[in-house]
Amino acid sequence: MTRNENIKRVFLIVLDSFGIGELPDAKEYGDEGSNTLGAIVKSERYNTPNLQKLGLFNIEGVELDREIESPIGSFARMKEASKGKDTTIGHWEIAGIISNSPLPTFPNGFPEDFLEEFSKRTGRKCICNKPYSGTDVIRDYGKHHMETGDLIVYTSADSVFQIAAHEDIVSVKELYSYCEIARELLTGERLGAGRVIARPFIGEEGKFTRTPNRHDYSLLPPGKTIMDELVDAGLDTIGVGKIYDIFAGKSIQSTNRIKDNTDGMNVTLDLMDKDFEGLCFVNLVDFDMKYGHRNDIEGYAQASTDFDIQLGQMLDKMRDEDVLIITADHGCDPSTPSTDHSREHTPMLIFGNNIKEGVDLKTRDSFSDIAKTIADIFNTAGDFSGKSFLKELEI
């Protein structure tokens, strides 16, 4: 396939956890009936005319009586081919890697032999070591930590090892070094957690709050990603949000840390004024971290509305040679009893001057179709198992 010289830049935005309804195998994951979008549209605070205009409610299986006659974007429902429902595996698949085995989880905490070695190398004991809410764990263990200096270690239903520490007791730099030690130890089939996460907090007992100094340490992707191909082709790859962390920095040439969704979109809007050729890959984590995991339907709905306002600004700024793709990495239905990720379909909306409007791309078999399509746009090798949908969209 020859290079489409009319397209110079792709902006790929992941609305972290923005699921649109259960996958066929959701029951195997305890997620039968989950529908993140279906939960939040019921809120009076939900208002997303720009997503609607792009075709969100025209997607196959989204039966919420909000479809429009002539969407300006094209659209698809994406199935996750990988085994899992976590951030790392979801993003890897969007970038072209299908994971046939789920990353290990730790419902009973981490093995004692690992904790002993970790404590030996850090010089600090560990407390908690069980699945826990991030806000609850500092409420329940924060005082002990401040009195002893012991590290609060915990996990969730995801493949994560998290370390919480008060910034007055353990400096952020020191906490990051402990995470690097954990990342070095947590490898292999038994211990290879997808992410090690630093969770610093501040405040006094009863008023502990987490700070923006979170940092993720991911496993290296186990294969070639679309970013690898773009770098090999001499093109640019820019990360916004935790993209750099999710891919352990591999083939992300520049990165932009953000405070929240609004800041992430402001950074992206600024990048639209820059001259580059290649991919700008954006993760907006607040949907998941602040609202999905806390079962905050109203907050999730408001975050969607806020994003949509900035999306309108983005659509106005797009150059003729730009393509915008909006998708998600999994679900996190805030209306279910669970506070964990949910095994759901995700949306795919694509828009640009060189992209046909209103094409229904139906249900796709893998998130990796996105990587394959970007590979076709830039005429790279495209050595991914996904199927490109570019031919159906080219004008």
UniProtKB/TrEMBL annotation:
Transmembrane segments: none annotated. It catalyses: alpha-D-ribose 1-phosphate = D-ribose 5-phosphate; 2-deoxy-alpha-D-ribose 1-phosphate = 2-deoxy-D-ribose 5-phosphate. GO terms for molecular function: magnesium ion binding; manganese ion binding; phosphopentomutase activity. Its cofactor is Mn(2+). Pfam families: Metalloenzyme. Binds 2 manganese ions. Belongs to the phosphopentomutase family. This is Phosphopentomutase. It comes from Peptostreptococcus russellii. The lineage of its organism: Bacteria, Bacillati, Bacillota, Clostridia, Peptostreptococcales.
